[in-house]
Amino acid sequence: MAGVVGSHDLLLVTLDTLRHDVAVELAAAGRIPNLAAHLPGGVWEKRHAPGSFTYASHQAMFAGFLPTPAAPGPHPRLFAARFAGSETTADGTFVFDTPDLVSGLAAEGYRTVCIGGVGFFNRQGALGSVLPGMFQESHWEPEFGVASPTSFEEQVARAEKVVAELPRERRLFLFVNVSALHQPNWFHTPGATREAGDSRATHAAALEYVDRHIGRLFAAASSRRRCFAVVCSDHGTAYGDDGYTGHRLGHEAVWTVPYAHFFLEPGAS
């Protein structure tokens, strides 16, 4: 990353609450072809989330602690704050001297842009302003939120607008928190009803919905120059697993997440 930062645009997409097992199943079954086309080897990497819910996980990721490979380490990190004694800072790590990655990239001349999704990015209160407040520019509308059946399409349209308006010579760090996977997601399954509620199947349908539109996001992110992309979940969620529902709890369905990073060539879709 030390050689990528400064020459490439950067894209970080968090597929909020996406379960690892669902992501793996859909990739193997050919149900998310647009994402699978960019996954190294066509498969997701199994990793452990840095937090069990959105706020905690994103605070960690913005400090450089992306999900950790689910195998004994230590594992060198892509990004890290300068910190004496760090065992995961390697020769190729992009090291920043600011409190977080976002301001570290801003110090390198990047325009930092957040397109929020779930409530922790809605700027409707003090808590919902902390994470988007790290960025030079942040966007959130009710249409981007968890209750919107067209949330990801709306987020992508805003991303396209942001990219189109940015001077071509300016490097971009674009962050998108995708809310579509989060509860409620029942409306992504044809014929489903609010009364039937959310399930592992509707969660999967929401990922298929995201896949149908993510090519536009990749195309926008790589429209100006080569782009390095990280696509991952911030944590999973439980749908009755061992009696658990939701997240902010210590279950395997919550702590295990899908992860991938890859380059998007100019004009990628």
From TrEMBL:
One Pfam annotation reads Sulfatase
Q: Which InterPro entries is this protein grouped with?
A: Alkaline_phosphatase_core_sf, STM4013-like, Sulfatase_N
**Where in the numbering of this chain does the Sulfatase N-terminal domain appear?**
10-253
Q: Which SUPFAM superfamilies does UniProt cross-reference here? A: Alkaline phosphatase-like
Signal sequence coordinates:
none
The record's Gene3D superfamilies line, in alphabetical order, gives: Alkaline Phosphatase, subunit A
Query: What name has this protein been given in UniProt?
Result: Metalloenzyme domain-containing protein
Q: Name the species this protein comes from.
A: Streptomyces rhizosphaericola
